[in-house]
Amino acid sequence: EKGGYDHFMLKEIFEQPRSIADSMRGRVNSEEGTLQLGGLSDYMDKLAEAKRIIIVGCGTSWHAGLVAEYVFEELARIPVEVEYASEFRYRNPIINPDDFVIAISQSGETADTLAAIQLAKSKGATIFGVCNVVGSSIARETHAGAYTHAGPEIGVASTKAFTAQVTVLTQMAIAIAHKRGSITEELYQQLLLDLSAIPQKVGQVLKAADRIKEIAYIFTYARNFIYLGRGLNFPVALEGALKLKEISYIHAEGYPAAEMKHGPIALIDEDMPVVFIATKDSSYEKIVSNIQEVKARKGRVIAIVTEGDELIPNMVDFVIEVPETHDILIPLLSSIPLQLLSYYVAVMRGRNVDQPRNLAKSVTVE
Ligand code: F6R
Protein backbone atom coordinates (compact mmCIF):
# COMPACT_ATOMS: atom_id res chain seq x y z
CA GLU A 1 0.00 0.00 0.00
CA LYS A 2 2.96 2.30 0.57
CA GLY A 3 4.23 1.28 -2.83
CA GLY A 4 7.67 0.31 -1.55
CA TYR A 5 8.18 3.55 0.41
CA ASP A 6 8.83 3.54 4.17
CA HIS A 7 6.02 5.98 4.84
CA PHE A 8 2.91 7.33 3.14
CA MET A 9 4.39 10.80 3.41
CA LEU A 10 7.41 9.84 1.30
CA LYS A 11 5.20 8.05 -1.21
CA GLU A 12 2.99 11.13 -1.46
CA ILE A 13 5.97 13.46 -1.89
CA PHE A 14 7.19 11.28 -4.74
CA GLU A 15 3.73 11.14 -6.31
CA GLN A 16 3.79 14.87 -7.00
CA PRO A 17 4.83 14.77 -10.66
CA ARG A 18 1.68 12.74 -11.22
CA SER A 19 -0.65 14.50 -8.77
CA ILE A 20 0.25 17.91 -10.19
CA ALA A 21 -0.34 16.58 -13.72
CA ASP A 22 -3.69 15.18 -12.55
CA SER A 23 -4.64 18.64 -11.24
CA MET A 24 -4.16 19.98 -14.76
CA ARG A 25 -5.57 17.07 -16.72
CA GLY A 26 -8.47 18.08 -18.96
CA ARG A 27 -7.86 21.69 -17.95
CA VAL A 28 -4.57 22.88 -19.42
CA ASN A 29 -3.90 22.12 -23.04
CA SER A 30 -0.67 23.86 -23.90
CA GLU A 31 -0.60 22.55 -27.46
CA GLU A 32 -3.93 24.10 -28.27
CA GLY A 33 -3.24 26.98 -25.93
CA THR A 34 -6.39 26.55 -23.85
CA LEU A 35 -7.23 26.40 -20.17
CA GLN A 36 -10.66 25.43 -18.93
CA LEU A 37 -11.89 24.84 -15.41
CA GLY A 38 -15.20 23.08 -15.94
CA GLY A 39 -16.55 23.75 -12.45
CA LEU A 40 -16.06 27.48 -12.82
CA SER A 41 -17.26 27.99 -16.39
CA ASP A 42 -20.71 29.27 -15.38
CA TYR A 43 -19.05 31.91 -13.21
CA MET A 44 -16.21 33.09 -15.44
CA ASP A 45 -18.00 36.23 -16.65
CA LYS A 46 -18.85 37.26 -13.10
CA LEU A 47 -15.40 36.40 -11.84
CA ALA A 48 -13.75 38.52 -14.48
CA GLU A 49 -15.66 41.47 -12.98
CA ALA A 50 -14.78 40.62 -9.38
CA LYS A 51 -13.86 43.59 -7.18
CA ARG A 52 -12.40 41.47 -4.41
CA ILE A 53 -11.59 37.86 -3.61
CA ILE A 54 -11.43 36.53 -0.06
CA ILE A 55 -9.56 33.28 0.46
CA VAL A 56 -10.17 31.22 3.61
CA GLY A 57 -8.46 28.11 4.91
CA CYS A 58 -6.42 26.67 7.78
CA GLY A 59 -2.85 25.42 8.13
CA THR A 60 -1.27 24.30 4.89
CA SER A 61 -4.38 25.27 2.94
CA TRP A 62 -4.02 28.80 4.27
CA HIS A 63 -0.44 28.79 2.98
CA ALA A 64 -1.70 27.77 -0.46
CA GLY A 65 -4.05 30.77 -0.16
CA LEU A 66 -1.10 33.08 0.50
CA VAL A 67 0.61 31.81 -2.63
CA ALA A 68 -2.63 32.39 -4.54
CA GLU A 69 -2.84 35.97 -3.26
CA TYR A 70 0.42 36.84 -5.03
CA VAL A 71 -0.61 35.03 -8.20
CA PHE A 72 -4.12 36.51 -8.42
CA GLU A 73 -2.94 40.03 -7.73
CA GLU A 74 -0.01 39.78 -10.12
CA LEU A 75 -1.89 38.28 -13.05
CA ALA A 76 -5.56 39.15 -12.60
CA ARG A 77 -5.04 42.44 -10.73
CA ILE A 78 -7.93 41.66 -8.37
CA PRO A 79 -7.41 42.54 -4.69
CA VAL A 80 -7.20 39.42 -2.55
CA GLU A 81 -7.48 38.95 1.19
CA VAL A 82 -6.33 35.71 2.77
CA GLU A 83 -7.85 34.82 6.10
CA TYR A 84 -7.51 32.11 8.67
CA ALA A 85 -11.00 30.63 8.59
CA SER A 86 -11.10 30.61 12.41
CA GLU A 87 -10.40 34.34 12.65
CA PHE A 88 -12.62 35.32 9.77
CA ARG A 89 -15.69 33.59 11.12
CA TYR A 90 -15.57 35.27 14.53
CA ARG A 91 -14.56 38.75 13.43
CA ASN A 92 -17.85 40.07 12.13
CA PRO A 93 -16.13 40.44 8.75
CA ILE A 94 -17.37 42.81 6.06
CA ILE A 95 -18.77 40.64 3.30
CA ASN A 96 -20.73 41.94 0.34
CA PRO A 97 -22.91 40.12 -2.16
CA ASP A 98 -20.41 40.94 -4.91
CA ASP A 99 -17.53 39.27 -3.03
CA PHE A 100 -16.06 35.98 -4.14
CA VAL A 101 -14.82 33.63 -1.47
CA ILE A 102 -12.45 30.78 -2.25
CA ALA A 103 -12.39 28.12 0.46
CA ILE A 104 -9.36 25.83 0.34
CA SER A 105 -9.48 22.47 2.10
CA GLN A 106 -7.84 19.13 1.40
CA SER A 107 -10.30 17.13 3.50
CA GLY A 108 -13.31 19.33 2.81
CA GLU A 109 -14.30 18.73 6.44
CA THR A 110 -12.43 21.39 8.43
CA ALA A 111 -14.94 22.85 10.89
CA ASP A 112 -13.66 26.44 10.86
CA THR A 113 -13.47 26.57 7.08
CA LEU A 114 -16.97 25.16 6.75
CA ALA A 115 -18.33 27.74 9.22
CA ALA A 116 -16.53 30.57 7.37
CA ILE A 117 -18.23 29.47 4.15
CA GLN A 118 -21.64 29.37 5.78
CA LEU A 119 -21.16 32.85 7.17
CA ALA A 120 -20.05 34.31 3.82
CA LYS A 121 -22.89 32.53 2.09
CA SER A 122 -25.44 34.00 4.47
CA LYS A 123 -24.19 37.48 3.43
CA GLY A 124 -24.79 36.68 -0.21
CA ALA A 125 -21.20 36.10 -1.38
CA THR A 126 -20.39 33.55 -4.08
CA ILE A 127 -18.32 30.68 -2.72
CA PHE A 128 -15.88 28.47 -4.59
CA GLY A 129 -14.29 25.38 -3.16
CA VAL A 130 -10.82 24.03 -3.83
CA CYS A 131 -11.09 20.62 -2.19
CA ASN A 132 -9.38 17.30 -2.60
CA VAL A 133 -12.07 15.00 -1.25
CA VAL A 134 -14.92 14.63 -3.71
CA GLY A 135 -18.38 15.06 -2.20
CA SER A 136 -16.95 16.38 1.11
CA SER A 137 -18.98 18.79 3.27
CA ILE A 138 -17.15 21.86 1.96
CA ALA A 139 -17.48 20.72 -1.65
CA ARG A 140 -21.21 20.37 -1.09
CA GLU A 141 -21.61 23.69 0.71
CA THR A 142 -19.99 25.80 -2.04
CA HIS A 143 -21.66 27.22 -5.16
CA ALA A 144 -19.00 25.84 -7.48
CA GLY A 145 -15.39 24.80 -7.39
CA ALA A 146 -12.48 22.91 -8.80
CA TYR A 147 -11.25 19.68 -7.26
CA THR A 148 -7.53 19.29 -6.74
CA HIS A 149 -7.39 15.62 -7.88
CA ALA A 150 -4.30 14.85 -5.81
CA GLY A 151 -5.69 11.45 -4.90
CA PRO A 152 -6.10 10.27 -1.28
CA GLU A 153 -3.56 11.77 1.10
CA ILE A 154 -2.87 9.45 4.04
CA GLY A 155 0.12 11.12 5.70
CA VAL A 156 -1.13 13.65 8.24
CA ALA A 157 1.34 16.27 6.98
CA SER A 158 -0.02 17.67 3.77
CA THR A 159 2.37 17.48 0.81
CA LYS A 160 0.84 16.56 -2.54
CA ALA A 161 -2.44 18.23 -1.52
CA PHE A 162 -0.57 21.52 -1.08
CA THR A 163 1.05 21.46 -4.52
CA ALA A 164 -2.27 20.41 -6.07
CA GLN A 165 -4.00 23.35 -4.36
CA VAL A 166 -1.37 25.75 -5.69
CA THR A 167 -1.72 24.20 -9.15
CA VAL A 168 -5.50 24.65 -9.18
CA LEU A 169 -5.42 28.17 -7.74
CA THR A 170 -2.77 29.18 -10.27
CA GLN A 171 -4.93 27.84 -13.08
CA MET A 172 -7.87 29.85 -11.72
CA ALA A 173 -5.78 33.01 -11.63
CA ILE A 174 -4.48 32.48 -15.17
CA ALA A 175 -7.97 31.74 -16.52
CA ILE A 176 -9.46 34.83 -14.85
CA ALA A 177 -6.55 37.02 -15.95
CA HIS A 178 -7.03 35.86 -19.52
CA LYS A 179 -10.74 36.53 -19.37
CA ARG A 180 -10.16 40.01 -17.94
CA GLY A 181 -7.48 40.79 -20.47
CA SER A 182 -5.03 41.67 -17.68
CA ILE A 183 -2.32 39.48 -19.24
CA THR A 184 -1.19 39.43 -22.85
CA GLU A 185 -2.01 36.48 -25.07
CA GLU A 186 1.71 35.83 -25.27
CA LEU A 187 2.11 35.60 -21.49
CA TYR A 188 -1.00 33.42 -21.29
CA GLN A 189 0.46 30.94 -23.77
CA GLN A 190 3.82 31.03 -22.02
CA LEU A 191 2.24 30.30 -18.64
CA LEU A 192 0.36 27.31 -20.05
CA LEU A 193 3.60 25.93 -21.45
CA ASP A 194 5.46 26.56 -18.21
CA LEU A 195 2.67 24.95 -16.16
CA SER A 196 2.73 21.87 -18.37
CA ALA A 197 6.46 21.52 -17.76
CA ILE A 198 6.09 21.57 -13.96
CA PRO A 199 5.48 17.82 -13.38
CA GLN A 200 8.70 16.91 -15.15
CA LYS A 201 10.61 19.60 -13.23
CA VAL A 202 9.22 18.32 -9.93
CA GLY A 203 10.62 14.94 -10.97
CA GLN A 204 14.02 16.61 -11.33
CA VAL A 205 13.79 18.16 -7.84
CA LEU A 206 12.98 14.75 -6.37
CA LYS A 207 16.30 13.46 -7.66
CA ALA A 208 17.94 15.55 -4.94
CA ALA A 209 16.37 13.33 -2.26
CA ASP A 210 19.61 11.58 -1.29
CA ARG A 211 21.47 14.83 -0.98
CA ILE A 212 18.66 16.32 1.11
CA LYS A 213 18.85 13.24 3.32
CA GLU A 214 22.54 13.94 3.95
CA ILE A 215 21.78 17.54 4.84
CA ALA A 216 18.97 16.40 7.13
CA TYR A 217 21.39 14.08 8.90
CA ILE A 218 23.72 16.98 9.65
CA PHE A 219 20.90 19.03 11.16
CA THR A 220 19.24 16.32 13.22
CA TYR A 221 20.74 17.96 16.33
CA ALA A 222 18.87 21.23 15.85
CA ARG A 223 16.27 22.46 18.32
CA ASN A 224 15.18 25.41 16.21
CA PHE A 225 15.03 26.30 12.54
CA ILE A 226 14.28 29.53 10.72
CA TYR A 227 12.85 29.58 7.18
CA LEU A 228 13.10 32.75 5.13
CA GLY A 229 11.75 33.73 1.74
CA ARG A 230 10.45 36.78 -0.06
CA GLY A 231 7.51 37.23 -2.42
CA LEU A 232 6.03 33.91 -3.44
CA ASN A 233 8.67 32.12 -1.45
CA PHE A 234 7.47 33.71 1.78
CA PRO A 235 4.45 31.37 2.04
CA VAL A 236 6.80 28.57 1.01
CA ALA A 237 8.94 29.45 4.04
CA LEU A 238 5.88 29.30 6.30
CA GLU A 239 4.92 25.93 4.85
CA GLY A 240 8.46 24.57 5.23
CA ALA A 241 8.49 25.57 8.90
CA LEU A 242 5.05 24.08 9.54
CA LYS A 243 6.09 20.79 7.94
CA LEU A 244 9.17 20.53 10.13
CA LYS A 245 7.24 21.34 13.32
CA GLU A 246 4.50 18.86 12.61
CA ILE A 247 6.54 15.76 11.98
CA SER A 248 9.92 16.31 13.66
CA TYR A 249 8.68 18.34 16.67
CA ILE A 250 11.52 20.79 16.09
CA HIS A 251 10.53 24.38 16.69
CA ALA A 252 10.61 26.27 13.41
CA GLU A 253 9.50 29.68 12.26
CA GLY A 254 8.94 31.08 8.82
CA TYR A 255 9.36 34.78 8.10
CA PRO A 256 9.52 37.12 5.15
CA ALA A 257 13.30 37.51 4.88
CA ALA A 258 13.17 41.28 5.30
CA GLU A 259 11.47 40.93 8.69
CA MET A 260 14.66 39.37 10.09
CA LYS A 261 16.14 42.64 11.19
CA HIS A 262 12.97 43.53 13.05
CA GLY A 263 13.60 40.90 15.70
CA PRO A 264 14.37 37.32 14.71
CA ILE A 265 17.96 38.15 13.75
CA ALA A 266 18.70 38.16 17.48
CA LEU A 267 18.29 34.38 17.37
CA ILE A 268 21.11 33.83 14.90
CA ASP A 269 24.27 32.17 16.16
CA GLU A 270 26.51 29.35 14.98
CA ASP A 271 23.97 26.73 16.04
CA MET A 272 20.99 28.20 14.21
CA PRO A 273 20.03 26.57 10.91
CA VAL A 274 18.46 29.02 8.50
CA VAL A 275 16.75 27.79 5.37
CA PHE A 276 16.64 30.42 2.64
CA ILE A 277 14.33 29.94 -0.31
CA ALA A 278 16.41 32.04 -2.66
CA THR A 279 15.44 31.21 -6.22
CA LYS A 280 16.19 33.58 -9.10
CA ASP A 281 13.16 35.83 -9.19
CA SER A 282 12.48 39.51 -8.80
CA SER A 283 13.62 39.51 -5.15
CA TYR A 284 16.87 37.63 -5.76
CA GLU A 285 19.23 40.50 -5.02
CA LYS A 286 17.40 41.40 -1.85
CA ILE A 287 17.56 37.87 -0.55
CA VAL A 288 21.27 37.66 -1.32
CA SER A 289 21.81 40.53 1.11
CA ASN A 290 19.61 38.80 3.69
CA ILE A 291 21.83 35.72 3.37
CA GLN A 292 24.90 37.90 3.95
CA GLU A 293 23.32 39.27 7.11
CA VAL A 294 22.78 35.77 8.47
CA LYS A 295 26.23 34.53 7.46
CA ALA A 296 27.82 37.57 9.11
CA ARG A 297 26.30 36.28 12.36
CA LYS A 298 27.54 32.74 11.72
CA GLY A 299 24.14 31.17 11.04
CA ARG A 300 24.25 27.85 9.21
CA VAL A 301 22.52 28.37 5.91
CA ILE A 302 20.77 25.89 3.66
CA ALA A 303 19.65 27.60 0.47
CA ILE A 304 17.14 26.50 -2.14
CA VAL A 305 18.49 28.06 -5.34
CA THR A 306 17.82 28.04 -9.05
CA GLU A 307 19.90 25.62 -11.07
CA GLY A 308 23.09 27.25 -12.28
CA ASP A 309 23.19 29.91 -9.54
CA GLU A 310 26.87 30.71 -9.11
CA LEU A 311 26.68 33.29 -6.37
CA ILE A 312 24.76 31.80 -3.45
CA PRO A 313 26.58 28.42 -3.41
CA ASN A 314 29.75 30.30 -2.48
CA MET A 315 28.07 32.09 0.40
CA VAL A 316 26.22 29.33 2.20
CA ASP A 317 26.80 25.94 3.84
CA PHE A 318 24.49 23.81 1.71
CA VAL A 319 22.52 24.32 -1.49
CA ILE A 320 19.68 22.44 -3.09
CA GLU A 321 18.90 23.31 -6.70
CA VAL A 322 15.54 23.55 -8.39
CA PRO A 323 15.01 24.04 -12.14
CA GLU A 324 14.13 27.41 -13.59
CA THR A 325 10.50 28.28 -14.24
CA HIS A 326 8.25 31.32 -14.53
CA ASP A 327 8.37 33.37 -11.31
CA ILE A 328 4.77 32.70 -10.33
CA LEU A 329 5.23 28.92 -10.55
CA ILE A 330 8.27 28.77 -8.29
CA PRO A 331 6.40 27.56 -5.16
CA LEU A 332 5.52 24.35 -7.00
CA LEU A 333 9.22 23.56 -7.17
CA SER A 334 10.71 25.31 -4.13
CA SER A 335 8.32 23.68 -1.64
CA ILE A 336 9.40 20.14 -2.60
CA PRO A 337 12.92 20.11 -1.07
CA LEU A 338 11.44 21.46 2.18
CA GLN A 339 9.00 18.55 2.35
CA LEU A 340 11.91 16.13 1.92
CA LEU A 341 14.06 17.97 4.45
CA SER A 342 11.41 17.72 7.17
CA TYR A 343 10.68 14.12 6.26
CA TYR A 344 14.29 13.01 6.63
CA VAL A 345 14.91 15.02 9.80
CA ALA A 346 11.80 13.46 11.36
CA VAL A 347 12.81 9.94 10.32
CA MET A 348 16.29 10.42 11.77
CA ARG A 349 14.77 11.59 15.01
CA GLY A 350 12.65 8.45 15.10
CA ARG A 351 9.31 10.24 14.80
CA ASN A 352 6.04 8.72 13.69
CA VAL A 353 6.02 10.58 10.41
CA ASP A 354 2.62 9.53 9.11
CA GLN A 355 0.84 9.92 12.43
CA PRO A 356 2.48 12.74 14.38
CA ARG A 357 1.40 13.19 17.98
CA ASN A 358 -1.58 15.44 18.74
CA LEU A 359 -2.58 15.86 15.08
CA ALA A 360 -5.57 14.60 13.13
CA LYS A 361 -5.89 14.39 9.38
CA SER A 362 -9.13 16.26 9.38
CA VAL A 363 -10.01 18.77 12.04
CA THR A 364 -13.78 18.51 12.34
CA VAL A 365 -13.97 20.32 15.68
CA GLU A 366 -12.98 23.92 16.22
C1 F6R B 1 -0.52 20.51 7.64
C2 F6R B 1 -1.90 20.10 7.65
C3 F6R B 1 -2.92 21.00 8.29
C4 F6R B 1 -4.10 21.16 7.34
C5 F6R B 1 -5.24 21.95 8.00
C6 F6R B 1 -6.38 22.19 7.05
O1 F6R B 1 0.31 19.57 7.06
O2 F6R B 1 -2.22 19.07 7.13
O3 F6R B 1 -2.37 22.22 8.63
O4 F6R B 1 -3.65 21.81 6.19
O5 F6R B 1 -5.70 21.23 9.11
O6 F6R B 1 -6.91 21.00 6.58
P1 F6R B 1 -7.82 20.94 5.29
O7 F6R B 1 -6.98 21.33 4.13
O8 F6R B 1 -8.27 19.50 5.21
O9 F6R B 1 -8.95 21.88 5.51
TrEMBL record:
<keyword id="KW-0963">Cytoplasm</keyword>
<protein>
    <recommendedName>
        <fullName>Glutamine--fructose-6-phosphate aminotransferase [isomerizing]</fullName>
        <ecNumber>2.6.1.16</ecNumber>
    </recommendedName>
</protein>
<feature type="active site" description="For Fru-6P isomerization activity">
    <location>
        <position position="361"/>
    </location>
</feature>
<feature type="domain" description="SIS">
    <location>
        <begin position="208"/>
        <end position="356"/>
    </location>
</feature>
<keyword id="KW-0808">Transferase</keyword>
<keyword id="KW-0315">Glutamine amidotransferase</keyword>
<keyword id="KW-0677">Repeat</keyword>
<keyword id="KW-0032">Aminotransferase</keyword>
<dbReference type="GO" id="GO:0004360">
    <property type="term" value="F:glutamine-fructose-6-phosphate transaminase (isomerizing) activity"/>
</dbReference>
<feature type="domain" description="SIS">
    <location>
        <begin position="43"/>
        <end position="183"/>
    </location>
</feature>
<comment type="function">
    <text>Catalyzes the first step in hexosamine metabolism, converting fructose-6P into glucosamine-6P using glutamine as a nitrogen source.</text>
</comment>
<comment type="subunit">
    <text>Homodimer.</text>
</comment>
